[in-house]
Backbone:
């Protein structure tokens, strides 16, 4: 883990509010690890590391002042990589996510040859190498149709993760990336605690990925 | 207490030394540990944090492993690297006066490891202890007397601005033979985030004028006390201001969440300008 700056190579607009930002630097990281990026807020904000083809990248959905700031910068200050890398069980896996997490999806697909499915509320403004469905109803139908997988990995909003978890949990183990508010990202502040069936865990050091049934009923 | 530089990492913000992975120890005068209480605490249910550009609100609830586990770790040399790299301040807390005394008894044998023992009389996020002790001067004094008897080293009270006037509290602290005071802790605040109430302690830039006034009042009334200024310090001007009103050292807390390298920047500034 270290402090570093990242220089933006290119920003791709995926939808009106989702972007992929690629960087000139290379960093060694494990899948699903994240970095904390400085913004005008008094705390840094967590973003998952990923790749876009050969480049280091993050995916980002603009939802508030911090994310608005990040997409306008040429250089970002950050620390990481943080969290535990996700090691899936053996067998064929599927990742289900949103346009904001394309960089992480690309990395996971490269490393684990998993299938990737994207659920988006609006049309994409660029070509992506993954199957995409549009709208809530099609997303639910997609989840219902996914069979023959040995594991699922779902990343998105809490609401989206809950829907996916409930539709997939009977089919195979479902892994989820948790969205707790973070201040340090390194286990110091104790702000990102979640209650699990194995006691209190901290998303930044014990996660961010947990098996869904360890946390949700 | 001789700190070089006179810059401490605030209790709780830096956990149990985790920031040494990101901050060069030569810029840290002392590293204060997260408050340790008699019994382990799981902390409060989430959400525990909310931040803006001017403050952080936290409702951690003193999550910690408890003094017995802490001492077990100490004996197992788990903090050895920390002690090798920086001076360490132990932060002591409890849920009632009795617990403060018991934690003090337990840590007394290990005082040699610490540059000072800081006693947290000001956590706003626990039901008992913390702030409550300060609002009952009888139990406060009882704790001051007992801890001064049991602990032989540099003893610091960490107080907030709620409960009583800080300068009066500082006088009592000094009259009971304590050596220093940290001013201030977080102040109770509340946010409504997506319909959920987050009740917690406010830290960060909004605290600065309040903390500065506290240091000013205390230094005027009790100049002999060693004062560590804590609250919203984020840049060189803040450091100047705290030293101007008499602080002997400054504490960096929330500022390290925005950029851990602030510690190096401020330490270099202090070495250049203020020593
Ligand atoms: C481990 C992890 C990895 C993440 N990876 C990505 C990613 O790859 N791409 C992406 O677009 N988003 C990711 N997020 C979410 C991202 O951190 C938030 O969307 C971002 O912090 C919002 O900041 P803002 O200032 O724009 O919004 P704000 O208006 O400040 O907040 C909007 C919402 O964002 C969340 N949020 C804000 N600050 C934080 C914080 N310090 N920690 C956690 N959540 C916060 C809260 O739910 C809040 O309600 C991740 C979150 C976590 C916990
Ligand atoms: C996440 C968090 C946890 C904290 N935990 C403790 C603690 O355990 N004990 C304590 O005495 N103060 C604790 N504090 C208060 C800080 O030590 C400091 O006094 C306060 O944050 C004000 O300074 P700042 O504005 O520089 O952060 C905590 C503050 C934060 C933000
Ligand atoms: S974000 Fe600070 S402990 Fe997890």
Residues:
């Amino acid at each position: 883990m270290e402090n570093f700056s990242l220089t933006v190579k290119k920003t791709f607009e995926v939808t009106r509010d989702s972007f992929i930002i690629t960087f000139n630097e290379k960093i060694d990281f494990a899948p699903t690890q994240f970095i904390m990026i400085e913004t005008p807020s008094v705390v840094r904000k967590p973003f998952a590391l990923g790749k876009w083809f050969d480049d280091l990248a993050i995916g980002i959905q603009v939802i508030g002042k911090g994310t608005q700031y990040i997409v306008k910068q040429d250089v970002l200050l950050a620390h990481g990589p943080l969290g535990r890398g996700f090691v899936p069980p053996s067998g064929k896996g599927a990742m289900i996510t949103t346009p904001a997490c394309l960089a992480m999806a690309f990395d996971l697909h490269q490393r684990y040859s998993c299938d990737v499915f994207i659920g988006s509320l609006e049309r994409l403004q660029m070509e992506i190498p993954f199957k995409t469905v549009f709208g809530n109803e099609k997303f639910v139908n997609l989840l219902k149709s996914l069979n023959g997988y040995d594991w699922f990995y779902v990343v998105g909003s809490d609401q989206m993760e809950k829907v996916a978890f409930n539709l997939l949990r009977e089919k195979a183990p479902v892994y989820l990336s948790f969205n707790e508010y973070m201040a340090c990202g390194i286990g110091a502040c104790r702000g990102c605690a979640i209650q699990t069936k194995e006691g209190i865990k901290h998303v930044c050091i014990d996660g961010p990925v947990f098996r869904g049934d360890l946390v949700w009923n | 207490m001789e700190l070089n530089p006179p810059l401490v990492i605030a209790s709780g913000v830096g956990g149990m030394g985790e920031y040494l992975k990101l901050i060069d120890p030569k810029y840290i005068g002392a590293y204060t540990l997260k408050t340790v209480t008699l019994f382990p605490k799981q902390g409060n249910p989430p959400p525990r944090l909310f931040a803006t550009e001017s403050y952080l609100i936290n409702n951690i609830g003193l999550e910690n492993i408890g003094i017995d586990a802490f001492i077990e770790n100490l004996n197992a040399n788990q903090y050895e690297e920390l002690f090798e790299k920086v001076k360490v301040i132990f932060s002591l807390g409890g849920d009632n006066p009795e617990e403060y005394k018991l934690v003090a008894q337990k840590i007394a044998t290990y005082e040699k490891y610490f540059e000072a023992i800081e006693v947290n009389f000001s956590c706003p996020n626990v039901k008992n202890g913390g702030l409550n002790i300060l609002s009952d001067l009888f139990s406060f004094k009882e704790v001051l007397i007992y801890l001064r008897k049991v602990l032989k080293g540099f003893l610091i009270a960490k107080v907030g601005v709620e409960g009583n006037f800080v300068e009066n509290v500082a006088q009592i602290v000094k009259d009971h033979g304590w050596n220093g005071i940290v001013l201030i802790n977080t102040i109770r605040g509340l946010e409504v985030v997506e319909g959920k109430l987050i009740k917690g302690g406010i830290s960060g830039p909004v605290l600065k004028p309040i903390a500065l006034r506290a240091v000013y009042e205390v230094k005027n009334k009790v100049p002999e006390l060693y004062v560590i200024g804590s609250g919203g310090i984020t840049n060189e001007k803040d450091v100047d201001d705290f030293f101007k009103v008499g602080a002997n050292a400054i504490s960096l807390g929330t500022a390290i969440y925005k950029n851990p390298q602030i510690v190096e920047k401020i330490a270099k500034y202090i070495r250049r300008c203020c020593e």
